[in-house]
Every structure is written in structure tokens, then in C-alpha cells.
Amino acid sequence: MIDQPAALLDDVRFDEDGLVAAIVQDAETNEVLMMAYMNEQTLEMTLETGRMTYWSRSRQEIWIKGATSGNTQKVESVHVDCDGDALLFSVAQKGGACHTGHQSCFYRRATADGWKDDGQMVFDPDEAYS
Predict the structure, then answer these.
(1) What is the pLDDT of residues 90-99, one digit of tens each?
(2) Is 85 annotated for ligand binding?
(3) 11 annotated to bind ligand
(4) Least CB-packed of 16, 37, 39, 102 within 10 Å?
(5) 70: alpha, beta or left? (left if phi > 0; alpha if psi -120 to 50)
(6) What value does the mean pLDDT take over residues 115-125?
(7) For the whole prediction, is pTM greater than 0.85?
(8) 26 annotated binding-site participant
């Protein structure tokens, strides 16, 4: 996807744990789908392959989006913020982005009565992760 991904890494500021926030939005609708973290290796893999690849903080391992569920993300564009400490990816989303089966991880909205689930379910997580 990017011919020389290493040149782009110079402008990214990784935190003390070696991570950078990656905000992901749908290329067609601009809906924010999720936020995850990347380390230098997973960012380089993403830039080289065009397939979103993250660092799982809970599992302490590389996580290629869709490897288990089939709900993949193909990079359309990437931007870095002014400080270099956050990335914004525009992706072609196949299936849902959220492990709960929702289209977006931001499916709960604050109301006077608490959180309201107003998101769209697009797959069965029990089937995807069995």
C-alpha cells in the first residue's frame, strides 16, 4: 500500500508503552467504527499490506482485524494528527467492526436513563468466535 512505510513512522509519536491510538472510520459513511492501539511493528504491517493490524494490549500480541471473524478492514487512507500521537484510518469495512457483533464499537448512546443500545447488529459473535 505505502511504498516506504518506514519514512512515515518518523512522524508518529508512540507513548511510553510503545503504542499509538488508531481511530478507524468507515470510508463510505465516515462513521467512527472503533479505536485500538498499534505499535511500530503493527503500523508498519498495516502500511505495507493495507490490512488493519493492531496490538492487543490484553493479549499482548499482534491482532489482524478479521483473522478470526472474517470482518476485515482494508485501508483506504491514513492521517496523523498534528502532534503525531494519534492516527486516523479510513477503511473499507467488511462485516462489523465490533467484537460484540455491532457495526461500530460506539453503539451505546448516553441518555437521561443511562446507556441506550442504538447500534446495528451485523453478525453473531458466538458464531464468529466459536
Answers:
(1) 999 999 999 9
(2) yes
(3) no
(4) 16
(5) left
(6) 93
(7) yes
(8) no
Distance CA 7, CA 4 (A): 6
Angle at 28 between CA 122 and CA 117, to 5 degrees: 35
pLDDT at 123 over 70: yes
pLDDT of residue 4: 64
Write b or e for each residue in 49-76: b if 16 or more Cβ atoms lie within 10 A of its Cβ, otherwise e.
Answer: ebbbbbbeeeeeeebbbbeebebbbbbe
Burial of 130 (0-12, 13-18, 19+ CB in 10 A): exposed
Query: Known binder of ligand: residue 82?
Result: yes
Q: What confidence category does residue 7 fall into, taking pLDDT thresholds of 50, 70 and 90?
A: confident
Q: Do residues 33 and 27 lie in contact, with contact meaning Cβ atoms separated by under 8 Å?
A: no
**Domains with residue ranges and CATH for the chain:** 5-121 (3.10.20.810)
Specify the pairing of strand 20-26 against strand 86-93.
parallel
- On whether 105 is known to bind a ligand per the annotation, the reply is yes
Q: Which of 71, 65, 128, 68 is nearest to 103 (CA)?
A: 71
